[in-house]
């Protein structure tokens, strides 16, 4: 995702420098038009590189080079790299916040300490823009300099573009693990086929197995849904986008994933979404009627989106430009000059 954002800046004439952990340095030379600095992660046993990396080399680098940049964008507030940028290059830095609640690791204690102590003492002046209204309200609780501008992740409209005409099938786009709760969707899909037997809608499930595939397949066989449910496995973005824009709607019922790119991809494809209120984007879905967003949604909700599909599709197509990746660089540039 971050490489897509960087590439969009480059396409629009900007020079980009990306800081990454040395653990992720490719074994072959990169041909991307982006300068990538691979810094060593210190104390990985404590500061896990995939969760909370600590790059000491960033300190002298920022002190020496901060004035060479128009803007320094750092993802999230609960981040050591964000802390370093916010304290060393306060005026240059914009924190692009994604978190809308405390991290649950270790009973939320590290997150609570970070926000109540580190943020309040050391990160009050740095500018913050959020990826959702929920993330915005969360940051405001701690007295931060939160800008009244929401900048979503951005979806590549060259891949995920809208289509009015829909075909009679539903799509699930999710890694098949327990937290994605795909089995609960299958239960409601089965109920839908029972309540509306004349509805020809099939169900396509796109995503790699992460421990749940066998259980899901067993459910499909047990309930004789083999002719209606298709497991696509892991597919390319191009293939997924084709299914997305042709689907009647996308179904999701995640137990914990607050930031679901697949929801934005579906809306950008002109395809309504049925979801619970775990994803932060549920507020937009409700406000702009981009589908149905409520906990414990049912087969009747699926029928509602099918019955009034043209209205929901029209709303999604109208909203889709706000998710455009190509608009993202300009949104940040406007913040720099505001």
At the first level of CATH, what is the class of the largest domain? Alpha Beta
Beta-strand percent range? 15-25%
Helix % is 25-40%
Q: So how many helices?
A: 13
Question: What summary fits the major beta sheet?
Answer: 6 strands, parallel
The helix-and-strand class reads: alpha/beta
Question: How many strand segments?
Answer: 12
Radius of gyration over all CA atoms, rounded: 21 Å
Tell me the name of the CATH homologous superfamily of the largest domain. Glycogen Phosphorylase B
Q: How many discrete domains?
A: 2
- Strand neighbour order, sheet with most strands: 9-8-7-10-11-12
Gross CATH architecture of the largest domain: 3-Layer(aba) Sandwich
CATH fold group of the largest domain? Rossmann fold
Gap from first CA to last CA: 26 Å
Low-confidence stretches: none
State the shape: elongated
Oligomer: single chain
| Run of helices and strands | HEEHEHEHEHEEHEHEHEHEHEHHH
* Average pLDDT score: 94
Describe the structure.
- It is a single chain.
- The chain folds into 2 domains: 2-151, 3-Layer(aba) Sandwich (Rossmann fold), CATH 3.40.50.2000; 169-323, Rossmann fold (3-Layer(aba) Sandwich), CATH 3.40.50.
- By secondary structure, the chain is an alpha/beta fold.
- The protein has 13 helices and 12 strands.
- It starts with a helix and ends with a helix.
Summed up:
This protein has 338 residues and is α/β, with parallel strands linked by helices. It has helices at 2-11, 58-65, 80-88, 109-122, 133-140, 182-195, 213-222, 237-246, 261-268, 282-287, 299-307, 309-319, 328-337, and strands at residues 17-21, 35-39, 72-75, 93-97, 127-130, 145-150, 169-173, 202-206, 229-233, 249-251, 273-275, 291-293. Helix content is 38%, strand content 16%.
């Amino acid at each position: 995702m971050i490489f897509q954002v960087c590439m969009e800046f480059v396409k629009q004439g900007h020079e980009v420098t990306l800081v990454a952990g040395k653990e992720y340095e490719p074994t072959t030379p990169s041909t991307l038009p982006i300068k990538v600095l691979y810094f060593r992660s210190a104390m990985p046993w404590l500061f896990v590189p995939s969760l909370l990396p600590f790059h000491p080399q960033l300190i002298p680098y920022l002190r020496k080079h901060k004035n060479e940049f128009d803007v320094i964008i750092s993802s999230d507030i609960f981040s050591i790299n964000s802390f370093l940028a916010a304290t060393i290059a306060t005026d240059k830095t914009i924190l692009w916040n994604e978190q809308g609640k405390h991290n649950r690791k270790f009973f939320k204690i590290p997150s609570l300490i970070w926000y109540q102590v580190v943020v309040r003492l050391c990160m009050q002046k740095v500018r913050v823009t959020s990826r959702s209204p929920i993330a915005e309200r969360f940051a405001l609780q701690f007295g931060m300099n939160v800008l009244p501008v929401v900048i979503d992740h951005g979806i590549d409209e060259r891949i995920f573009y809208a289509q009015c005409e829909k075909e009679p099938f539903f799509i699930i786009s999710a890694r098949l693990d327990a937290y994605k709760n795909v089995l609960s969707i299958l239960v409601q899909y089965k109920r839908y086929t029972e309540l509306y037997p004349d509805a020809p809608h099939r169900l396509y499930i796109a995503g790699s197995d992460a421990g749940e595939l066998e259980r899901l397949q067993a459910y499909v066989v047990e309930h004789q849904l083999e002719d209606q449910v298709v497991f696509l496995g892991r597919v390319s973005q191009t293939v997924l986008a084709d299914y997305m824009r042709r689907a009647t709607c996308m179904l999701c019922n995640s137990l914990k994933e607050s930031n679901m790119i697949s929801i934005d991809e579906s809306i950008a494809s002109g395809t309504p979404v049925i979801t619970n209120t775990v994803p932060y984007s549920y507020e937009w879905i409700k406000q702009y009627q981009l589908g149905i967003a409520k906990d414990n949604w049912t087969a009747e909700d699926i029928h509602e989106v099918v019955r009034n599909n043209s209205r929901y599709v029209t709303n999604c197509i109208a909203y889709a430009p706000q998710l455009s990746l190509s608009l993202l660089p300009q949104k940040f540039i406007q913040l720099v000059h505001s």
